[in-house]
C-alpha cells in the first residue's frame, strides 16, 4: 500500500507493477480523480480533503491496509514518511514500513541529537552549541566564542521555519524570544540550538542506501542550492561545484553517517559546503527524496525498487556509484512566479507533455484534472539527462518550451528564465541565488 498521493504514489505503483507486486492506493475525497487511484490494483478512500483527516490520519491508513491485506506500506515523501509513531504502529500491526525504524526516525529527526551522533561518528559538523541551549546567557557566550554570524535554530524545525541569522548580541536576544515562540506555536517544541552561519553556502546532499546487515553505500551527490524560502526549485547531479576529491570525501562521510546509525533503506545525508569547499553535516532525511529521479538517471538504477528490496531483507551490493552523465530536475508547481509564487489551484484545461530522448516526466496531472488547494503545489517533475551539463541545460530549455499547461498558472516561465541565466549556466550560485533573481 502507498500511504501518499500524486506523482510519488504513481511512481511507487509503477515500480511495484514491474516487480509483480499488487498495489493499494489511498485517497482523500479531493483526490478521487487522481491517476494514482486509477492505476493501483485497489483504492481505498481514507477521509475528507484536509491532510489531518486523511493522509495524516494513522488509524484510517492502518484500517485501509488491514482490509486489503497489505504486507507493507510505502510512505513516499512528506506526510507520514518520517513519522516515528506511524513506523511504530505499522510494526505493531505486522505491516512492513518501507522506511526507517521508529528509533532511527527519532534519532535523526531531532536535529541536535542527530548532530551529536554525527560528531561522534567523525562526520564534520558545523561549530555550535552541544545540544539544546539552556539559557540566553549560554547562547550569547557560545555566539561570541564561535564568532558571528550565527544561526539560531529550532530543534523540531523544518521547511525553513524556526531559524534566524544573528549578526550580533542584540539579534540573539531578539531570536531567543521570537524564534522560540514561533517554534512552540508551529511544532509544539521551543527547544533551540545554535550553529555557525556558513557563508556562501551550497546545499549538497549525498544519496545513500543501507541494508539490514549494517552495510551502506553512497550513490553520489545532488546539488539543491537553487531554493526559495528553503524550498528546493531545481536539483542537478553532478554538482558543478564538486571536485573529485570533495566527492570522495563527502561520499565517505555519508557512509560513516549511515553506518553509525545502522541505517536501513534509502535516504540522504545533507551537507552545507562553504566558499572554501569545507563541508558540514546538516541533517539526514530518512526517506526517498523528491529529487531521487536525477540520481536514477545518471546511475541507471530504480531507487524505489532498491527501497523495496532492502525492506525485504536483500543486502546492498556495497558498491559506490559515480555519475557518468548530467541530470537536471525542475519542480513544476501550480504557482504564479510573477505574483511571488502565489498558489494557483484549479482545473487544467489543456495539457501537453514534453518528450524526446533523455526527457522524463513524473506527474499525476492531465487535461481536465483539478489541482486541489489542500496539498503541496507541486504537480510534476521534469527531468532531463545528457552527456554534459551544457547539453542538459539546452535539453531542459527545449523540454520546457514543449510543456503546455493551461487553465492554471505554473512555474514553467520561471524555469525557462532560470535556464537562460548567465550565472546559473556558469554554475556560479549559492543558496542565496533567489534573493537577487527577478522574473
β-sheet strand percentage: 25-35%
Query: What is the domain tally?
Result: 3
List unreliable stretches of 5+ residues: none
Give the structural class.
alpha+beta
Mean pLDDT: 94
Distance between the termini: 41 Å
Largest sheet: 4 strands, antiparallel
The CATH homologous superfamily of the largest domain is named ATP-grasp fold, B domain
Describe the structure.
The relative contact order is 0.11. The longest helix has 19 residues, at about 170-185. α4 runs antiparallel to α5, α7 packs across α8 and α12 packs antiparallel against α13 (about 410-420). The protein has 14 helices and 23 strands. The model has no long low-confidence stretch (mean pLDDT about 95). It has about 450 residues and is an alpha+beta fold. β16 and β17 (about 340-345) form a beta hairpin. It folds into three domains: about 5-100, Rossmann fold (3-Layer(aba) Sandwich); about 125-195, 2-Layer Sandwich (Dna Ligase, domain 1); about 200-435, ATP-grasp fold, B domain (D-amino Acid Aminotransferase, Chain A, domain 1), CATH 3.30.470.20. It starts with 5 loop residues before the first helix and ends in a 13-residue tail after the last helix.
Question: Notable features of this structure?
Answer:
single chain; four-stranded antiparallel β-sheet; 23 strands; alpha+beta; 14 helices; Dna Ligase, domain 1; Rossmann fold; 439 residues; D-amino Acid Aminotransferase, Chain A, domain 1
Fold topology:
Blueprint (H helix, E strand, L loop, with lengths): L5 H13 L5 E5 L6 H5 L2 E6 L10 H10 L4 E2 L10 H9 L3 E2 L4 H8 L1 H10 L15 H11 L3 E9 L2 E6 L2 H19 L4 E5 L5 E9 L5 E8 L3 E2 L2 E2 L1 E4 L6 H17 L4 E9 L5 E7 L6 H8 L3 H9 L14 E8 L1 E2 L5 E2 L2 E2 L2 E3 L6 E5 L6 E2 L6 E9 L2 H14 L1 E3 L5 H9 L1 H5 L13
Parallel strand pairs: 1-2, 3-4
Antiparallel strand pairs: 5-6, 5-7, 8-9, 8-13, 10-11, 12-15, 13-14, 15-22, 16-17, 18-21, 19-23, 20-22
Helix pairs in contact: 4-5, 7-8, 12-13
Amino acid at each position: 500500500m502507498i500511504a501518499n498521493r500524486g506523482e510519488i504514489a504513481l511512481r511507487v505503483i509503477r515500480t511495484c507493477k514491474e516487480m509483480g507486486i499488487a498495489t493499494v492506493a489511498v485517497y482523500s475525497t479531493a483526490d478521487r480523480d487522481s491517476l494514482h487511484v486509477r492505476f493501483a490494483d485497489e483504492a481505498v478512500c481514507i477521509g475528507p480533503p484536509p491532510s489531518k483527516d486523511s493522509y495524516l490520519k494513522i488509524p484510517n491508513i492502518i484500517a485501509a491496509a488491514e482490509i486489503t491485506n497489505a504486507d507493507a506500506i510505502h510512505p513516499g515523501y512528506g506526510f507520514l514518511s518520517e513519522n516515528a509513531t506511524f513506523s511504530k504502529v505499522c510494526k505493531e500491526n505486522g505491516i512492513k514500513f518501507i522506511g526507517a525504524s521508529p528509533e532511527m526516525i527519532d534519532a535523526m529527526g531531532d536535529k541536535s541529537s542527530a548532530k551529536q551522533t554525527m560528531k561522534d561518528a567523525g562526520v564534520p559538523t558545523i561549530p555550535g552549541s552541544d545540544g539544546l541551549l539552556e539559557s540566553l546567557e549560554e547562547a550569547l557566550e557560545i555566539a561570541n566564542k564561535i564568532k558571528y554570524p550565527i544561526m539560531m535554530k529550532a530543534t523540531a524545525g523544518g521547511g525553513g521555519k524556526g531559524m534566524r541569522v544573528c549578526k550580533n548580541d542584540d539579534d540573539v536576544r531578539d531570536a531567543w524570544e521570537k524564534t522560540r515562540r514561533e517554534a512552540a506555536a508551529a511544532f509544539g517544541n521551543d527547544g533551540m540550538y545554535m550553529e555557525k552561519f556558513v557563508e556562501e553556502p551550497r546545499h549538497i546532499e549525498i544519496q545513500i542506501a543501507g541494508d539490514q546487515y549494517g552495510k551502506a553505500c553512497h550513490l553520489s551527490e545532488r546539488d539543491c542550492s537553487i531554493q526559495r524560502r528553503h524550498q528546493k526549485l531545481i536539483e542537478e547531479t553532478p554538482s558543478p561545484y564538486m571536485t573529485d576529491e570533495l566527492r570522495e570525501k563527502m561520499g565517505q562521510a555519508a557512509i560513516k553517517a549511515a553506518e553509525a546509525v545502522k541505517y536501513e533503506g534509502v535516504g540522504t545525508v545533507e551537507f552545507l559546503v562553504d566558499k572554501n569547499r569545507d563541508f558540514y553535516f546538516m541533517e539526514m532525511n530518512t526517506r526517498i527524496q523528491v529529487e531521487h529521479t536525477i540520481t536514477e538517471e545518471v546511475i541507471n538504477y530504480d531507487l524505489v525498487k532498491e527501497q523495496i528490496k532492502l525492506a525485504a531483507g536483500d543486502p546492498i551490493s556495497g558498491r559506490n556509484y559515480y555519475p557518468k552523465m548530467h541530470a537536471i530536475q525542475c519542480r513544476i508547481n501550480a504557482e504564479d512566479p510573477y505574483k511571488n509564487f502565489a498558489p494557483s489551484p484549479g482545473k487544467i484545461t489543456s495539457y501537453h507533455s514534453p518528450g524526446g530522448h533523455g526527457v522524463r516526466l513524473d506527474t499525476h496531472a492531465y487535461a481536465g484534472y483539478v489541482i486541489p488547494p489542500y496539498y503541496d503545489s507541486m504537480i510534476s517533475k521534469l527531468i532531463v539527462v545528457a552527456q554534459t551539463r551544457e547539453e542538459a541545460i539546452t535539453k531542459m530549455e527545449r523540454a520546457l518550451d514543449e510543456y503546455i499547461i493551461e487553465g492554471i498558472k505554473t512555474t514553467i516561465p520561471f524555469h525557462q528564465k532560470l535556464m537562460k541565466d548567465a550565472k546559473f549556466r556558469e554554475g556560479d550560485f549559492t543558496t542565496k541565488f533567489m534573493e537577487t533573481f527577478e522574473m
